[in-house]
Amino acid sequence: MGLPGLTPVHFFSHGSTRMLEAETESGNYWAKCGQEALAHNVKGIVMMGAHWACLGDKIEVATNPNPGKSPCPYVTPSLYLDWKPNPDLATAERCISMLKADGFNVGPNPNFDWIHDTFLILIKMFPDFSKCPPVTIVSMNARFDPHYHVKVGATLRPLRKEGYLLIGTGGAVHNLYRNAWTDMILYRESLGQERPPEAWALEFRQATEDVVTRNRGPDLRKAMIRLMQHPAYRQAQATDDHFMPAMFAAGAAGDLEDRAHANVLAAETWELINMCNSQFTFGSYQASADTSRKMLAKPHKVASPAIAVAASA
Description:
By secondary structure, the chain is α/β, with parallel strands linked by helices. Helices cover about 35% and strands about 20% of the residues. It is built from twelve helices and eight strands. It has helices at about 25-40, 80, 90-100, 115-125, 145-155, 180-185, 200-215, 220-225, 235, 245-250, 290-295, 305-310, and strands spanning about 10-15, 45-55, 60, 105-110, 135-140, 165-170, 265-270, 275-280. Helix 8 (about 220-225) runs antiparallel to helix 10 (about 245-250). The model is unreliable at about 290-295 and about 300-313 (pLDDT under 50). It holds the Pfam family LigB. Its cofactor is Zn(2+). This is 4,5-DOPA dioxygenase extradiol.
């Protein structure tokens, strides 16, 4: 099967390392997305994770031809040690050229080893590493400017028209300081919800779903940025690193052409009481260029005033 128009974009909440071993709705969805990518002959994958950021105004792209993998605690080691990365050096150089042409201070990193925020997702998507498409990993910038990371996604968005799948991996609600860690440390168990999540976690989780599913195109980019001003944002995100991949995804899926395509919350897993691993997909493989042109000619229905107020609060 070929690629009709744009590939989708994913924002995956990778959660704790236990998500690699546990059977979850989110893990099942990652596997489904991997199967769809293979069925549609995806050319390669470009990812931004939450655990690699560069200082100053710089951004880097991984160019290690034989990357190792960082330790992945609380899981059976064979689940990740035996899985071999498939780096895409040619696309890495191309991403550097595209970002440089758009004004970014960008360069290669030939020593970067992969971290669980990316390889955990890829292992679930492609358990047989020999079938994993070539992968390019792009760093964040440690100033965590949402506009900067939206622009990174927007700059690399043209790759979607060539059959590349763009993925951001971070967390919808990801505050490690407010998680309940006892069961994880003692029993390697992260899914036992002995009490409900706290109100701030539920509130921000709902605001994120509303913004993603009720906004499209440039409206999506603006609404995602406004989420960082939400009253519950700092409780839901103790640091900004796990939300920047969402900005990358919004940039990659927030063009005028993207107004034609729905964004969905496809799966979700709560861990450690207060960590919400929401899995979002922007667009779909079935979206054709002809459909895009037809829908762009129609007025776009924006989010309701209530949602707009919540997102900008």
